[in-house]
Design brief:
Helix content is 72%, strand content 1%.
Length: 511
């Protein structure tokens, strides 16, 4: 590849990353970012198996379950923007490591808690941490990619989410039914506690592995740290080609005329003066997002995330609960047809005798149904990366949102657990695909100095939607389940319409 640089003798990002080749490093980076995304899938949906398993020990009725499923979402609402601001000022890698470490440590601590409110608080902290990892892993991965491969590589992340959705019920199926209890006068540790602890371990392992990877060269260039960025390019080149880093053909990089003040990366968060400077920097970046030319894209991203995420996370977290209720109904009323709303109302009446579900046993079919839901995502996870360049992310996003809205309406008309399972599979496959596509689009919609913050702001709105959705569902599932069904369907249809207004992505070099 010729050194056809600009007159100043420095290579731009696109040229510099292209000459590193595409090989071992990029596959390893996809592996760790994908595993982080898979880990966030586990972290977000783990509550769906804790609900039926821990309801007796934590004395949870439907309203309490609604609060417990909402607590991680509240943590995500607060954490998304904080982590996004730090990632856009201090760096992608260090903040990603911090979020994973916090998620792992807090997850393990929460497994030893036997009080409902204390457990709810620690799950809030888990949500606070895991949202940072979720919001940063896509931009971090995308900022190492040449334009030719970027959109395709980002779309492969959906496969890792799918694996997470499949692995979680398998782990739960293996551990939760175990007849395992360690108990003293003031403490107990049961199989569901062990399940929570095991699910926290991947975050710790991934945080340690991430130390072996460099900071985003695109971010370093944005900060004006061209020498550090050049060293990263040399390192990537050596990993991909096996050649000595000194043989990397690019010898200098273009300086950014409007690069950020590099001092922001050296600021100490515990120093009042430094924290004030950092907050001022964050406020300036936030104002940029809320002004032209970025305002339109910011509003679109936030609105789509709110509607899509509220529908997805609420229903995904409650699917195992609904499967359990269907299972109980069909055992008590063999051969009779029913619906989600009928099952919910009957289960609600039954709670007078057993308000905390202490006699509830999670049937193997509940785990198996959740595995089926994950398996249903595999075709889409393979099709999207292959055809994304030919069809475009917007087309796939629009189709996934509108069809999933129609599927949500269909939940009101199911009359058996089998029909409920089929619709649940289609819903999960389409909405999880939609969420990944939104992340892919956001990477292209905003410049480097605003990219993670924009993703974080949209994530904040999404988690706010999920928080509201979980609280609504917890209150209404036993009373008027048609209301949340209609609300979530309308959200998805509106998001589908809004997605048509998104800009085209995947063709240009990252700004």
């Amino acid at each position: 590849m010729g050194l056809d640089f600009l007159a100043d003798g420095g290579a731009d990002f696109e040229h510099a990353i292209s000459v590193t080749g595409f090989g071992k490093f990029h596959y390893m980076l996809l592996a760790i970012c994908g595993l982080i995304y898979m880990d966030t899938a586990i972290g977000v949906t783990i509550i769906s198996f804790v609900l039926p398993a821990a309801q007796c020990d934590l004395q949870m009725d439907s309203t309490s379950k609604g609060w417990l499923t909402a607590s991680p979402m509240l943590g995500m609402v607060i954490g998304s923007y904080i982590w996004g601001c730090l990632a856009d000022t201090k760096g992608r890698k260090i903040v990603l490591i911090a979020t994973l470490l916090m998620d792992g440590v807090v997850g393990i601590i929460s497994s030893f808690v036997g009080n409902f409110w204390a457990f709810l608080f620690f799950r809030f902290l888990n949500g606070f941490a895991v949202t940072g990892a979720m919001g940063i892993c896509f931009p971090y991965l995308g900022e190492f990619q040449p334009t030719k491969y970027r959109e395709k590589i980002l779309c492969w992340m959906e496969m890792f989410w799918t694996v997470g959705v499949i692995v979680l019920p398998l782990i739960a199926w293996l551990i939760v039914p175990l007849d395992f209890t360690y108990k003293t006068d003031s403490f107990y540790f049961k199989s569901w506690n062990l399940f929570v602890a095991i699910c926290a371990l991947p975050s710790l392992m991934l945080s340690l592995w991430l130390f072996a990877f460099p900071e985003s060269p695109k971010f370093l260039l944005e900060c004006g740290e061209t020498e550090k960025a050049l060293e990263v390019f040399k390192w990537i080149y050596a990993k991909n080609t096996g050649n000595d880093p000194s043989t990397y053909p690019v010898k200098s990089l273009q300086e950014k005329s409007n690069s950020k003040d590099t001092n922001t990366r050296a600021l100490k968060l515990l120093k009042h003066k430094d924290l004030k400077v950092l907050c001022s920097e964050v406020w300036d970046l936030t104002k940029q997002l809320c002004r032209p030319p970025y305002l339109r894209n910011t509003v679109l991203a936030c609105a789509i995330q709110f509607g899509l995420t509220s529908s997805y996370y609420t229903l995904m977290v409650w699917f195992p609960e609904l499967f359990t209720r269907f299972e109980e109904f069909e055992i008590d009323h063999p051969g009779e047809s029913t619906s989600v709303c009928i099952v919910s109302s009957l289960s609600g009446n039954g709670t007078i005798i057993d308000p905390y579900g202490c006699n509830t046993i999670i049937a193997p079919s509940v785990y198996l149904h959740t595995v089926y839901i994950g398996l249903a995502c595999i075709p889409g996870s393979i099709i999207i990366p292959i055809f994304i360049h030919k069809v475009g992310a917007k087309v796939f996003l629009f189709a996934s949102l509108v069809i999933s809205g129609a599927v949500t309406v269909g939940f009101y008309y199911v009359v058996s657990s089998d029909q409920n399972l089929i619709l649940s599979c289609v819903f999960e496959a389409l909405t999880s695909l939609g969420i990944s596509l939104v992340y892919c689009v956001i990477v292209d919609m905003f410049p480097t100095n605003l990219r993670v913050m924009a993703a974080a702001l949209s994530l904040t709105m999404g988690r706010l939607g999920a928080l509201v959705g979980n609280l609504l569902f917890g209150y209404l599932i036993d009373l008027a389940c048609v209301v949340p069904v209609v609300i979530f369907a309308v959200f998805l249809f509106i998001c589908g319409i809004l997605s048509t207004q998104l800009p085209k992505t995947g063709k240009d070099t990252l700004d």
